[in-house]
Design brief:
Elements: H1 34-41, H2 49-54, E1 66-69, H3 72-78, H4 81-88, E2 90-93, H5 98-109, H6 111-127, H7 136-147, E3 148-153, H8 156-163, H9 167-173, H10 175-181, E4 182-186, H11 189-194, E5 203-210, H12 219-237, E6 245-248, H13 261-265, H14 283-287
Parallel strand pairs: 1-2, 3-5
Antiparallel strand pairs: 3-4, 5-6
Helix pairs in contact: 3-4, 5-6, 6-7, 6-12
């Protein structure tokens, strides 16, 4: 395990400076290509935005966009963040920003997923009746983009336990089944940023997908399946915030030292069993800002 319970306390800001070995901070980063993580670890300081796509190994990773330093005037001329991406096929990114680097990593590993989220956000803009106020479609697209986790499983009963918020049963009683038959893919870049300094209260918004056994063969197969699935199914499955389920991220086996019933029984405010009762904010909600607006 990578974190001890003693190291997980109340929220504090994630680090601002570069951590070459950041990938060791959380199992959530294991979804990324080892060659990409190795290339990043070779940097002694925060890699420049231009290097995020151009200098990372291609291998099994194919990017649908490039990454450019954020220019507020250029974004304004394009009509906004998502319009800039549509016009330039480039993602505006702030230098020395973990938040934006994790966004780039998700683009690199799940290009079709990110393109579909981008298209949903453009659709949201077209539907808005009031400037600056998202539609329900915009709300759910932003939640997945910032705080999303895609939970895939070959066993629908595991997904049923998550839907029903049966946390101890899912994470502890069925731990061996969960490790074998499910994967938790953190794709929200605000969550990936927050996991540099995990804290009790860290919540994800989960999209649940039943998959064939072939999707769990290895991480490359998992990424390929999810990205291909997103290309056709995400616009159908993601329409309202109720399509996403609350997920206490640190309950996932091995995300912290949580291999005991006491961990789950001792945190009733975190492992809530009724949907609609708010706990701690998700990472994107806590930041309170969205560069896409």
């Amino acid at each position: 395990m990578r974190s001890e319970v003693a190291q997980v306390g109340p929220w504090k800001p994630p680090p601002a400076g570069w951590r070459a070995e950041f990938a060791s901070a959380s199992p959530a980063y294991d979804q990324f290509c080892p060659s990409v993580l190795q290339a990043l670890s070779a940097w002694e300081e925060f890699p420049p935005v231009a290097a995020w796509g151009a200098e990372l190994p291609r291998g099994q990773v194919a990017s649908a966009v490039s990454f450019v330093e954020q220019d507020e005037a250029a974004i304004k001329r394009a009509g906004g963040y998502d319009f800039f991406i549509r016009e330039r096929r480039a993602v505006p990114s702030r230098r020395e920003s973990w938040h934006d680097l994790f966004n780039a990593l998700v683009w690199l590993h799940y290009p079709r997923l990110k393109l579909q989220i981008h298209q949903l956000q453009l659709e949201d803009f077209a539907r808005r009746e009031q400037a600056g106020r998202r539609t329900p479609l915009g709300d759910v697209a932003t939640l997945l983009d910032e705080c999303g986790t895609i939970v895939i499983s070959t066993d629908p009963s595991l997904l049923d336990d998550l839907r029903a918020l049966r946390w101890r049963r899912l994470f502890f009683d069925r731990r061996a089944e969960l490790r074998e038959k499910a994967r938790f893919l953190v794709v929200g870049h605000a969550l990936l940023h927050a996991l540099l300094e995990p804290y009790i209260g860290l919540m994800a918004r989960a999209l649940l997908v039943e998959v064939p056994a072939s999707a769990l063969t290895d991480m490359s197969a998992t990424r390929s399946f999810v990205d291909a699935w997103a290309a056709t199914e995400l616009p159908i499955r993601l329409r309202h915030t109720s399509d996403l389920y609350p997920l206490p991220l640190l309950g996932i086996p091995d995300f912290v030292a949580n291999d005991s019933a006491a961990f789950y029984d001792g945190l009733p405010d975190y492992f809530r069993t009724r949907r609609g009762v708010r706990g701690s904010a998700g990472a994107g909600e806590r930041e309170g800002t969205n560069p896409k607006e």
